Amino acid sequence: MSRRVIVVGGGAAGLSAAINAAEQGCAVTVLERLPRVGKKLLLTGNGRCNLGHEGFDFSHYHGSVKQAEQILAAFDAKAYFRRFGLYTRTDSEGRMYPMSGTAASVLDALRFAAEQRGVQTLCEKQVTGLIPKNGTWTVLCGAERFSADAVILAAGGAAAPNCGTDGSLYPILRKMGYTVIPPRPSLCPVPTDLARVRAMKGLRVRAAAKAVCGGKTVKQESGEVQFTDGALSGICIFNLSRLTGEYGSRAEIALDLLPDIPVHDTVPLLDGLLSLRGNLPAGDLLTGLLPKRIAECCIKQSGGSCTEPASALSDAAKETLAAILRDWRFPVTGSAKFAQAQVTAGGVAGECVTGSLESRLHRGLFFCGELLDLDGDCGGYNLTWCWAGGAALRLGR
Protein backbone atom coordinates (compact mmCIF):
# COMPACT_ATOMS: atom_id res chain seq x y z
CA MET A 1 0.00 0.00 0.00
CA SER A 2 1.35 3.43 -0.98
CA ARG A 3 2.32 5.84 1.76
CA ARG A 4 -0.43 8.44 2.20
CA VAL A 5 0.77 12.03 2.11
CA ILE A 6 -1.24 15.20 2.64
CA VAL A 7 0.12 18.48 1.33
CA VAL A 8 -1.37 21.55 3.01
CA GLY A 9 -1.39 24.35 0.45
CA GLY A 10 -1.70 24.31 -3.32
CA GLY A 11 0.69 27.13 -4.14
CA ALA A 12 4.17 27.03 -5.62
CA ALA A 13 5.78 25.07 -2.79
CA GLY A 14 2.78 22.80 -2.32
CA LEU A 15 2.56 21.77 -5.94
CA SER A 16 6.30 21.16 -6.12
CA ALA A 17 6.13 19.05 -2.95
CA ALA A 18 3.09 17.13 -4.22
CA ILE A 19 4.82 16.24 -7.50
CA ASN A 20 7.92 15.17 -5.60
CA ALA A 21 5.97 13.01 -3.16
CA ALA A 22 4.05 11.34 -5.99
CA GLU A 23 7.31 10.59 -7.80
CA GLN A 24 8.46 8.83 -4.62
CA GLY A 25 5.46 6.49 -4.95
CA CYS A 26 3.20 8.16 -2.40
CA ALA A 27 -0.56 8.60 -2.66
CA VAL A 28 -0.81 12.39 -2.47
CA THR A 29 -3.71 14.68 -1.59
CA VAL A 30 -3.39 18.48 -1.71
CA LEU A 31 -5.67 20.48 0.59
CA GLU A 32 -6.12 24.03 -0.71
CA ARG A 33 -7.97 26.77 1.16
CA LEU A 34 -9.18 28.63 -1.98
CA PRO A 35 -11.51 27.43 -4.77
CA ARG A 36 -8.48 26.72 -6.98
CA VAL A 37 -4.75 26.16 -6.61
CA GLY A 38 -2.02 28.63 -7.54
CA LYS A 39 -3.80 31.98 -7.23
CA LYS A 40 -0.76 33.80 -5.83
CA LEU A 41 1.47 32.22 -8.46
CA LEU A 42 -0.65 33.75 -11.22
CA LEU A 43 0.06 37.25 -9.88
CA THR A 44 3.84 36.96 -9.61
CA GLY A 45 6.07 39.01 -11.89
CA ASN A 46 3.10 41.17 -12.88
CA GLY A 47 1.45 38.10 -14.36
CA ARG A 48 4.61 36.92 -16.15
CA CYS A 49 6.00 34.83 -13.24
CA ASN A 50 9.64 35.55 -12.47
CA LEU A 51 10.18 31.90 -11.57
CA GLY A 52 13.91 31.97 -10.85
CA HIS A 53 17.24 33.72 -11.23
CA GLU A 54 20.32 32.75 -13.19
CA GLY A 55 23.19 31.66 -10.94
CA PHE A 56 23.19 31.17 -7.18
CA ASP A 57 24.01 33.65 -4.43
CA PHE A 58 22.72 32.87 -0.93
CA SER A 59 23.27 36.49 0.15
CA HIS A 60 19.91 37.21 -1.51
CA TYR A 61 18.19 35.14 1.19
CA HIS A 62 17.45 36.10 4.78
CA GLY A 63 16.25 34.21 7.84
CA SER A 64 17.19 31.36 10.15
CA VAL A 65 16.88 28.38 7.78
CA LYS A 66 20.60 28.15 7.04
CA GLN A 67 20.24 24.57 5.81
CA ALA A 68 18.44 26.04 2.79
CA GLU A 69 21.77 27.09 1.28
CA GLN A 70 22.70 23.53 0.34
CA ILE A 71 19.21 22.84 -1.03
CA LEU A 72 19.22 25.98 -3.16
CA ALA A 73 22.78 25.51 -4.41
CA ALA A 74 21.84 22.11 -5.84
CA PHE A 75 18.67 23.31 -7.55
CA ASP A 76 18.37 24.24 -11.25
CA ALA A 77 15.05 25.97 -11.99
CA LYS A 78 15.52 25.82 -15.75
CA ALA A 79 16.11 22.06 -15.73
CA TYR A 80 13.34 21.52 -13.20
CA PHE A 81 10.65 23.06 -15.41
CA ARG A 82 11.98 21.57 -18.60
CA ARG A 83 11.06 18.18 -17.12
CA PHE A 84 7.43 19.31 -17.28
CA GLY A 85 7.60 20.76 -20.78
CA LEU A 86 8.00 24.39 -19.72
CA TYR A 87 10.79 26.37 -21.38
CA THR A 88 12.25 29.55 -19.98
CA ARG A 89 14.09 32.68 -21.03
CA THR A 90 16.40 34.88 -18.96
CA ASP A 91 16.52 38.67 -19.19
CA SER A 92 19.62 40.87 -19.07
CA GLU A 93 19.45 41.08 -15.26
CA GLY A 94 19.34 37.31 -14.79
CA ARG A 95 15.62 37.02 -14.06
CA MET A 96 14.04 33.86 -15.43
CA TYR A 97 10.55 33.80 -17.00
CA PRO A 98 8.45 31.24 -18.88
CA MET A 99 9.06 31.53 -22.60
CA SER A 100 5.32 32.14 -23.06
CA GLY A 101 5.53 35.26 -20.90
CA THR A 102 2.54 34.21 -18.80
CA ALA A 103 2.33 32.92 -15.24
CA ALA A 104 -0.56 30.69 -16.28
CA SER A 105 1.91 28.54 -18.23
CA VAL A 106 3.88 27.86 -15.06
CA LEU A 107 0.79 26.93 -13.11
CA ASP A 108 -0.47 24.73 -15.94
CA ALA A 109 2.87 22.89 -16.14
CA LEU A 110 2.69 22.12 -12.43
CA ARG A 111 -0.99 21.17 -12.49
CA PHE A 112 -0.51 18.86 -15.47
CA ALA A 113 2.52 17.22 -13.83
CA ALA A 114 0.61 16.69 -10.59
CA GLU A 115 -2.44 15.24 -12.32
CA GLN A 116 -0.31 12.94 -14.47
CA ARG A 117 1.27 11.56 -11.29
CA GLY A 118 -2.09 10.89 -9.64
CA VAL A 119 -2.13 13.78 -7.18
CA GLN A 120 -5.63 14.45 -5.83
CA THR A 121 -6.56 18.09 -5.18
CA LEU A 122 -9.31 19.09 -2.76
CA CYS A 123 -10.13 22.81 -2.73
CA GLU A 124 -11.91 25.01 -0.19
CA LYS A 125 -10.34 23.05 2.68
CA GLN A 126 -9.17 25.24 5.56
CA VAL A 127 -6.85 23.32 7.88
CA THR A 128 -7.76 23.92 11.52
CA GLY A 129 -5.70 21.31 13.33
CA LEU A 130 -2.96 18.66 13.15
CA ILE A 131 -3.00 15.56 15.35
CA PRO A 132 -0.10 13.06 15.39
CA LYS A 133 -0.83 9.63 16.86
CA ASN A 134 0.98 6.30 16.64
CA GLY A 135 2.99 7.22 13.55
CA THR A 136 0.05 8.62 11.59
CA TRP A 137 -1.49 12.05 11.19
CA THR A 138 -5.01 13.43 11.30
CA VAL A 139 -5.54 16.74 9.51
CA LEU A 140 -8.63 18.64 10.62
CA CYS A 141 -10.56 20.91 8.27
CA GLY A 142 -13.40 22.03 10.49
CA ALA A 143 -15.59 18.99 10.99
CA GLU A 144 -13.75 17.00 8.28
CA ARG A 145 -10.85 14.70 9.11
CA PHE A 146 -8.17 13.43 6.74
CA SER A 147 -5.69 10.69 7.64
CA ALA A 148 -2.12 10.39 6.36
CA ASP A 149 1.22 8.77 7.08
CA ALA A 150 3.02 12.07 6.49
CA VAL A 151 2.05 15.73 6.17
CA ILE A 152 3.81 18.46 4.19
CA LEU A 153 3.04 22.00 5.32
CA ALA A 154 3.30 24.40 2.39
CA ALA A 155 0.56 26.89 3.22
CA GLY A 156 2.74 29.99 2.85
CA GLY A 157 3.12 32.86 5.29
CA ALA A 158 0.84 35.81 5.93
CA ALA A 159 1.52 38.01 2.88
CA ALA A 160 -1.19 38.50 0.26
CA PRO A 161 -4.03 36.99 2.34
CA ASN A 162 -6.44 37.38 -0.59
CA CYS A 163 -4.38 34.66 -2.29
CA GLY A 164 -4.93 32.20 0.55
CA THR A 165 -1.81 32.78 2.66
CA ASP A 166 -3.46 34.05 5.82
CA GLY A 167 -0.96 32.88 8.46
CA SER A 168 -3.53 30.61 10.11
CA LEU A 169 -1.03 27.77 10.62
CA TYR A 170 1.24 29.85 12.87
CA PRO A 171 -0.90 29.60 16.04
CA ILE A 172 -1.48 25.89 15.43
CA LEU A 173 2.26 25.29 15.15
CA ARG A 174 3.07 27.40 18.21
CA LYS A 175 0.71 25.24 20.28
CA MET A 176 2.55 22.18 18.97
CA GLY A 177 5.84 23.55 20.33
CA TYR A 178 7.35 25.17 17.25
CA THR A 179 9.34 28.39 17.42
CA VAL A 180 7.76 30.91 15.05
CA ILE A 181 9.77 34.04 14.31
CA PRO A 182 7.18 36.87 14.36
CA PRO A 183 6.01 37.32 10.77
CA ARG A 184 6.24 40.75 9.17
CA PRO A 185 5.62 42.08 5.66
CA SER A 186 8.49 42.02 3.16
CA LEU A 187 8.89 43.06 -0.47
CA CYS A 188 6.42 45.87 0.09
CA PRO A 189 6.22 49.69 0.10
CA VAL A 190 7.80 51.57 3.01
CA PRO A 191 5.45 54.08 4.69
CA THR A 192 6.94 57.54 5.23
CA ASP A 193 5.96 61.14 6.00
CA LEU A 194 2.91 61.87 3.83
CA ALA A 195 3.70 65.59 3.63
CA ARG A 196 7.15 64.87 2.21
CA VAL A 197 5.97 62.67 -0.66
CA ARG A 198 2.49 64.01 -1.39
CA ALA A 199 3.63 66.39 -4.15
CA MET A 200 5.61 63.61 -5.86
CA LYS A 201 2.87 60.98 -5.90
CA GLY A 202 2.99 58.92 -9.08
CA LEU A 203 6.55 59.93 -10.03
CA ARG A 204 9.59 57.69 -10.41
CA VAL A 205 13.30 58.41 -10.25
CA ARG A 206 16.46 56.36 -10.54
CA ALA A 207 18.36 56.41 -7.25
CA ALA A 208 20.66 54.60 -4.89
CA ALA A 209 18.61 53.79 -1.81
CA LYS A 210 19.82 52.64 1.57
CA ALA A 211 18.26 51.69 4.88
CA VAL A 212 19.86 53.65 7.71
CA CYS A 213 19.50 52.97 11.43
CA GLY A 214 21.32 54.91 14.15
CA GLY A 215 23.43 56.62 11.51
CA LYS A 216 24.66 53.29 10.15
CA THR A 217 23.85 51.98 6.66
CA VAL A 218 22.27 48.55 7.05
CA LYS A 219 21.77 47.74 3.37
CA GLN A 220 21.99 49.54 0.03
CA GLU A 221 20.16 48.93 -3.24
CA SER A 222 19.81 50.84 -6.49
CA GLY A 223 17.09 51.15 -9.09
CA GLU A 224 13.85 52.96 -9.70
CA VAL A 225 12.14 54.54 -6.70
CA GLN A 226 8.42 55.25 -6.91
CA PHE A 227 6.64 57.85 -4.79
CA THR A 228 3.17 56.72 -3.79
CA ASP A 229 0.45 57.92 -1.40
CA GLY A 230 2.44 58.16 1.82
CA ALA A 231 5.09 55.59 0.92
CA LEU A 232 8.19 54.81 -1.10
CA SER A 233 7.99 51.90 -3.52
CA GLY A 234 9.91 50.20 -6.32
CA ILE A 235 12.05 47.05 -6.43
CA CYS A 236 15.02 48.62 -4.64
CA ILE A 237 12.71 49.82 -1.83
CA PHE A 238 11.06 46.39 -1.66
CA ASN A 239 14.48 44.86 -1.04
CA LEU A 240 14.96 47.21 1.91
CA SER A 241 11.47 46.77 3.34
CA ARG A 242 12.23 43.71 5.51
CA LEU A 243 14.87 45.81 7.31
CA THR A 244 12.62 48.80 7.84
CA GLY A 245 10.05 46.36 9.22
CA GLU A 246 12.70 45.03 11.59
CA TYR A 247 13.96 48.42 12.80
CA GLY A 248 10.66 50.31 12.65
CA SER A 249 10.66 54.04 13.34
CA ARG A 250 14.38 53.89 14.19
CA ALA A 251 15.07 53.48 10.48
CA GLU A 252 15.24 55.93 7.61
CA ILE A 253 15.47 55.55 3.87
CA ALA A 254 18.23 57.66 2.31
CA LEU A 255 18.11 58.40 -1.42
CA ASP A 256 21.02 59.45 -3.61
CA LEU A 257 19.27 61.05 -6.58
CA LEU A 258 22.46 61.27 -8.66
CA PRO A 259 23.83 57.71 -8.45
CA ASP A 260 25.73 57.95 -11.74
CA ILE A 261 27.59 61.17 -10.84
CA PRO A 262 30.63 61.14 -8.49
CA VAL A 263 29.88 62.81 -5.15
CA HIS A 264 32.76 65.26 -5.56
CA ASP A 265 31.16 66.54 -8.79
CA THR A 266 27.89 67.55 -7.09
CA VAL A 267 28.80 71.13 -6.14
CA PRO A 268 30.55 71.88 -9.47
CA LEU A 269 27.46 70.50 -11.23
CA LEU A 270 25.17 72.86 -9.32
CA ASP A 271 27.51 75.79 -9.91
CA GLY A 272 27.45 75.05 -13.64
CA LEU A 273 23.65 74.92 -13.71
CA LEU A 274 23.44 78.18 -11.75
CA SER A 275 25.69 79.88 -14.28
CA LEU A 276 23.48 78.66 -17.11
CA ARG A 277 20.05 79.13 -15.50
CA GLY A 278 20.57 81.72 -12.80
CA ASN A 279 17.94 83.98 -14.35
CA LEU A 280 15.31 81.20 -14.45
CA PRO A 281 13.00 80.28 -11.56
CA ALA A 282 14.83 78.01 -9.13
CA GLY A 283 12.19 75.34 -9.78
CA ASP A 284 13.71 74.95 -13.28
CA LEU A 285 17.31 74.69 -12.07
CA LEU A 286 17.47 70.88 -12.07
CA THR A 287 15.59 70.30 -15.33
CA GLY A 288 17.30 67.44 -17.15
CA LEU A 289 18.50 65.84 -13.92
CA LEU A 290 15.20 65.12 -12.18
CA PRO A 291 11.47 65.18 -12.88
CA LYS A 292 10.30 68.74 -12.25
CA ARG A 293 8.05 68.03 -9.24
CA ILE A 294 10.84 66.11 -7.54
CA ALA A 295 13.29 68.92 -8.30
CA GLU A 296 10.87 71.47 -6.84
CA CYS A 297 10.52 69.44 -3.63
CA CYS A 298 14.31 69.39 -3.29
CA ILE A 299 14.50 73.16 -3.78
CA LYS A 300 11.77 73.79 -1.21
CA GLN A 301 13.34 71.49 1.36
CA SER A 302 16.68 73.25 0.90
CA GLY A 303 15.01 76.49 1.99
CA GLY A 304 14.82 78.03 -1.45
CA SER A 305 11.87 79.40 -3.39
CA CYS A 306 10.90 77.71 -6.65
CA THR A 307 9.46 80.96 -8.10
CA GLU A 308 12.39 83.26 -7.38
CA PRO A 309 15.45 83.30 -9.68
CA ALA A 310 17.88 80.47 -9.10
CA SER A 311 20.62 83.05 -8.58
CA ALA A 312 18.76 84.17 -5.43
CA LEU A 313 19.46 80.85 -3.68
CA SER A 314 21.54 81.52 -0.58
CA ASP A 315 24.85 79.78 0.01
CA ALA A 316 23.18 77.82 2.81
CA ALA A 317 20.36 76.73 0.48
CA LYS A 318 22.85 75.63 -2.17
CA GLU A 319 24.80 73.63 0.39
CA THR A 320 21.62 72.01 1.70
CA LEU A 321 20.44 71.27 -1.86
CA ALA A 322 23.71 69.49 -2.66
CA ALA A 323 23.28 67.40 0.51
CA ILE A 324 19.67 66.54 -0.34
CA LEU A 325 20.58 65.39 -3.83
CA ARG A 326 23.07 62.90 -2.39
CA ASP A 327 21.40 61.94 0.89
CA TRP A 328 17.68 62.71 0.97
CA ARG A 329 16.22 61.24 4.16
CA PHE A 330 12.73 59.80 4.51
CA PRO A 331 11.60 58.63 7.97
CA VAL A 332 9.99 55.22 8.31
CA THR A 333 6.60 55.91 9.87
CA GLY A 334 5.16 52.44 10.15
CA SER A 335 4.85 49.08 8.48
CA ALA A 336 3.03 48.11 5.30
CA LYS A 337 0.05 45.78 5.62
CA PHE A 338 0.38 42.13 4.71
CA ALA A 339 -2.09 42.81 1.92
CA GLN A 340 0.57 45.06 0.32
CA ALA A 341 3.42 42.56 0.75
CA GLN A 342 4.63 39.95 -1.70
CA VAL A 343 6.44 37.84 0.89
CA THR A 344 6.53 37.13 4.63
CA ALA A 345 9.71 37.64 6.64
CA GLY A 346 9.75 35.36 9.67
CA GLY A 347 8.00 32.03 10.14
CA VAL A 348 8.95 28.61 11.49
CA ALA A 349 12.53 28.83 12.74
CA GLY A 350 15.31 26.86 11.08
CA GLU A 351 16.10 25.14 14.38
CA CYS A 352 12.79 23.28 14.09
CA VAL A 353 13.68 21.36 10.91
CA THR A 354 16.41 19.03 9.71
CA GLY A 355 18.58 19.51 6.65
CA SER A 356 15.88 17.70 4.65
CA LEU A 357 13.16 20.01 6.08
CA GLU A 358 11.55 17.35 8.25
CA SER A 359 10.36 18.42 11.68
CA ARG A 360 12.74 17.83 14.60
CA LEU A 361 9.71 17.60 16.90
CA HIS A 362 7.35 15.29 15.01
CA ARG A 363 8.32 12.49 12.68
CA GLY A 364 6.51 12.54 9.36
CA LEU A 365 5.88 16.30 9.37
CA PHE A 366 7.66 18.34 6.70
CA PHE A 367 7.87 22.05 5.89
CA CYS A 368 8.65 23.96 2.72
CA GLY A 369 8.19 27.38 1.16
CA GLU A 370 7.27 30.66 2.77
CA LEU A 371 5.95 29.07 5.98
CA LEU A 372 9.60 28.71 7.04
CA ASP A 373 11.74 31.61 8.23
CA LEU A 374 13.44 32.24 4.90
CA ASP A 375 12.67 35.05 2.48
CA GLY A 376 14.48 36.33 -0.57
CA ASP A 377 14.98 39.54 -2.48
CA CYS A 378 13.06 40.47 -5.61
CA GLY A 379 14.18 38.64 -8.72
CA GLY A 380 12.70 35.15 -8.55
CA TYR A 381 14.49 34.12 -5.36
CA ASN A 382 11.37 33.38 -3.33
CA LEU A 383 9.81 31.17 -5.98
CA THR A 384 13.12 29.35 -6.39
CA TRP A 385 12.97 28.53 -2.68
CA CYS A 386 9.43 27.20 -3.12
CA TRP A 387 10.39 24.90 -6.00
CA ALA A 388 13.67 23.80 -4.43
CA GLY A 389 12.25 23.14 -0.95
CA GLY A 390 9.34 21.14 -2.30
CA ALA A 391 11.57 19.11 -4.60
CA ALA A 392 14.11 18.41 -1.85
CA LEU A 393 11.79 16.55 0.56
CA ARG A 394 12.66 12.89 1.16
CA LEU A 395 9.64 11.15 2.64
CA GLY A 396 11.11 7.73 3.38
CA ARG A 397 8.90 4.73 3.86
Structure summarized in a few sentences:
With 397 residues, the chain is of the alpha+beta class.
Helix-strand layout with pairing:
Elements: E1 4-8, H1 12-23, E2 27-31, H2 39-43, E3 52-53, E4 61-63, H3 68-73, H4 77-82, E5 88-90, E6 95-98, H5 103-116, E7 120-122, E8 129-133, E9 136-141, E10 144-148, E11 150-153, H6 169-175, E12 180-186, E13 190-191, H7 194-197, E14 204-213, E15 216-228, E16 231-233, H8 235-247, E17 251-256, H9 266-277, H10 292-301, H11 315-326, E18 328-331, E19 343-348, E20 365-367, E21 374-376, H12 381-392
Parallel strand pairs: 1-2, 1-11, 2-7, 11-20
Antiparallel strand pairs: 3-6, 4-21, 5-6, 8-9, 9-10, 12-19, 13-16, 14-15, 14-17, 15-16, 17-18
